[in-house]
Specification:
By secondary structure, this protein is mainly α. It has 4 helices and no strands. The protein has a domain at 28-43 and 52-109. The chain starts with a helix and ends in a 13-residue tail after the last helix.
């Protein structure tokens, strides 16, 4: 039988591993850089695109958003600003730091 403290550690480890495996092949570090460099231009507080941060959606919502190519159906296609690899990095970053992730983040600055 597992004691309560060990159980909590195992649950935390499982959550962390799930967050790391959110999007295979993407880099959170690069994704944060690309998000701040490209996305914040239109998606900062008071900007025309409305404020968007990783906290804007849950992990499942971010996955569905990118899978459906929703940004490409808007005014500006992501591919105008980012390569496919960079888009995967941004998806990795926002999904790993979504509102329901083990490490939620706003990406301020």
């Amino acid at each position: 039988m597992i004691n309560g403290k060990l159980f909590k550690v195992l649950v935390a480890l499982a959550c962390l591993l799930a967050a790391v495996a959110v999007v295979a092949g993407g880099s959170e570090t690069k994704g944060k850089f690309y998000f701040k460099k490209n996305c914040k231009t239109c998606h900062a507080k008071g900007q025309a695109g409305g404020e968007v941060t990783p906290l804007t959606k849950t992990q499942a919502q971010w996955k569905a958003y990118f899978a459906a190519g929703k940004h490409d159906k808007g005014k500006e296609a992501l591919s105008k600003y980012l390569t496919p690899e960079q888009i995967v990095d941004v998806e990795t970053f926002v999904t790993a730091h979504a509102s329901d992730s083990p490490q939620p983040e706003t990406c301020g600055g």
